[in-house]
Design goal:
single chain; 333 residues; two-stranded antiparallel ribbon
């Protein structure tokens, strides 16, 4: 195993068995993080000589710790054997308090910069604004523009946690409901009884981290949408929803979280005097000094790989940037 060149990300299984790269800015801090984990890099010239159209993926990163979330998502996207071009998007109507403005200016694009382009996939992350009404979020109007734009400019959108709740409210008017206490921990969820491509390769049961104060009710989904409820659990309620064509995917958990994310959130809230509950099913014997367990890594890798392969790659038009040249575009508008 070896590092080739710090431009874009790949995974090398063994000598000669190479996953195609994710193309990102070589100066992005996440590159160093992932390189330290043996997720390697390929130079631009070699990537451009691969005989395949790269998939264009846009990430709207609403999480406060931008660099952490970048690394988490790129770690999972790097598992695919497809070449991906990754762009990061931010909301100009919100000023990040935890990520330096220079980082945003260097590595992120505004909606105006991407508005005229077409993307094969879009990821909308969660955000720590659950206790606010949607309209009270300072970037809500701008986010609604992105979601409306995505209907005609993105083939498949993956909404995560609050991003999933926001997407359901913007598209269907479904309200989030407050929980009696914060749901924080690692929980069991059931895979769909009927086969679904997003869950190809899954066992009957899988685990995923959840970290939220609110939920969406099953009866509201059934009453107001045609979305399929793919996964749920006794503690988490609804977990993963999707449209039948997989152009809309909603995940209320955080499969992208790494081993220590819930731990960092817990100690952050403890230091802030919020008296948080210890994340459930996470620390051995609830000993917060112990190393947190990790039991969702395979499910996370499989889910993101299935989304890229079956929801995006297998269906998106070849000439998505110029859809008027691809007759299949008009079939799903």
């Amino acid at each position: 195993m070896k590092t080739i060149s710090p431009f874009s990300i790949i995974t090398i299984l063994e000598e000669g068995d190479i996953f195609m790269p994710i193309k990102i800015d070589k100066k992005l801090p996440a590159v160093d993080i992932l390189s330290s984990e043996n997720i390697f890099v390929m130079d631009k010239q070699r990537a451009e000589h691969q005989d395949i159209r790269p998939l264009n993926i846009l990430v709207l990163n609403l999480m406060p710790q931008k660099i952490v979330t970048e690394a988490q998502l790129l770690r999972l996207l790097a598992n695919t054997p497809l070449q991906l071009n990754i762009d990061f998007l931010y909301m100009t109507t919100h000023q990040s308090k935890t990520t330096h403005a220079k980082h945003m200016e260097t590595f992120y694009k505004t909606f105006e910069e991407v508005e005229s382009h077409y993307f094969d996939g879009l990821i909308i992350t969660g955000a720590p604004v659950e206790n606010l009404a949607f309209e009270e979020v300072d970037y809500w109007t701008e986010l609604c523009r992105v979601i409306e734009w995505s209907k005609s400019h993105v083939y498949s959108t993956l909404h995560i946690c609050w991003g999933a709740q926001a997407g359901l409210y913007a598209r269907y008017g479904i309200e989030k409901k407050p929980l009696a206490h914060k749901l924080s921990g690692v929980y069991s969820q059931k895979s769909p009884v009927e086969p679904n491509l997003l869950f190809r390769g899954f066992d009957d049961e899988f685990f995923a981290p959840h970290s939220r104060h609110t939920e969406v009710l099953k009866e509201d989904i059934l009453r107001h949408t045609n979305l399929e409820i793919l996964s749920s659990g006794p503690d988490v309620g609804l977990s993963i929803l999707a449209s039948r064509d997989l152009r809309e995917v909603y995940s209320f958990g955080h499969l992208e979280y790494d081993r220590y994310t819930l731990s960092k959130e817990y100690f952050r809230d403890l230091q802030a005097g919020l008296n948080p509950n210890i994340p459930e099913n996470y620390f051995a014997n609830n000993d917060v000094k112990s190393k947190p367990g990790l039991c969702w890594n395979l499910a996370a890798a499989l889910f993101f790989n299935n989304w890229i392969n079956y929801a995006v790659y297998q269906e998106t038009p070849f000439d998505w940037e110029n859809p008027e040249n691809d007759a299949s575009y008009f079939a799903y508008l």
